[in-house]
Amino acid sequence: MALDDRINVLKKKRLRQPVIIAAWPGMGLVGFNAVEFLRQTLGAEKVAEIHSTDFFSLQGVTVKEGISAPLKMPTNVFYAWRNPAGAPDLLLFLGTAQPVNGREMALSNLVLDVAAIFGVTRLFTAAAMASKIDHLSPSKVYGVSNEGGEAEQLDKLGVELLQEGEIGGLNGLLIGVAEQRNLQGSCLMGEMPHYTTHIENPKASQAVLEILMKLLDLKLDLKPLQERARYIQTQIQGLLQEARDRVDAAEGGRDEAGNDDDSGSESPDQGGGPAIN
């Protein structure tokens, strides 16, 4: 089969029973940051990329001091790592942007074409699951697989299997396309608070990586993620306290003006803010 001209193989690295782990940006950058952490920690080598301008939509240019910056196109890059302890080796994929509507299947198939070139036998994607937990709660991992035996294995590792619903974006679609090509695939989703989806969530990324470590017998030092998680948690606490202080100040002003009834007054955390238990 002829190689698609949008695929550029930089180095045909020989891998042993390779597993591909793929991610695109999504809520809290949970999946993307988990795979990026793997890439950096393992020192994975860039081995292939997908070039195509028709997958993405650019809305304008960045300007600084009257000069427009060069257009920066999203990238689709593969990195390989040979496990010194033996198989399985890893092929990591990072796409820096989701494709435009109507181009999802085409990009998914190109990703799997590259996976086939390197002999991939198993696929994982990483994503996020927003739920009604608070930012101090531990993150569970939810999962879905396109194969029953793998679903059972995830269940035994404490992954909560998704019973119904839909996984948006390429992080979900790719495992469906993999099934069409007879490739075993699963999506792991780190749980995060629904009110912080716009903030990175290292705690959820760590939860996903802990499951991958068990599945693939990886040895990783997750302390940098733990430290980042503590920092983000502190920042959220500070923002919430500022919001409470503003509400308290506003309510105090209304009390002094005699416009408030003390009975049935709302908690500062009700209304538009997050519910903190």
Structure description:
- With 277 residues, this protein is an alpha/beta fold.
- The chain has one domain (7-54, 72-227): Rossmann fold, CATH 3.40.50.
- Helices cover 35% and strands 21% of the residues.
- The chain has helices at 30-42, 104-117, 148-156, 170-180, 202-216, 223-257, and strands at residues 7-9, 19-23, 45-50, 63-64, 67-68, 76-81, 90-95, 122-131, 141-145, 160-161, 184-193.
- The protein has a 9-stranded mixed sheet with strand order 1-3-6-7-2-8-11-9-10, with helices on both faces. A two-stranded antiparallel sheet has the order 4-5.
- Strand 4 and strand 5 form a beta hairpin.
- The chain is globular, with a radius of gyration of 22 Å.
What's the short version?
This protein is α/β, with parallel strands linked by helices and 277 residues long. The protein contains 6 helices and 11 strands.
Architecture blueprint of SSEs:
Elements: E1 7-9, E2 19-23, H1 30-42, E3 45-50, E4 63-64, E5 67-68, E6 76-81, E7 90-95, H2 104-117, E8 122-131, E9 141-145, H3 148-156, E10 160-161, H4 170-180, E11 184-193, H5 202-216, H6 223-257
Parallel strand pairs: 2-7, 2-8, 8-11, 9-10
Antiparallel strand pairs: 1-3, 3-6, 4-5, 6-7, 9-11
Helix pairs in contact: 1-5, 2-4, 5-6
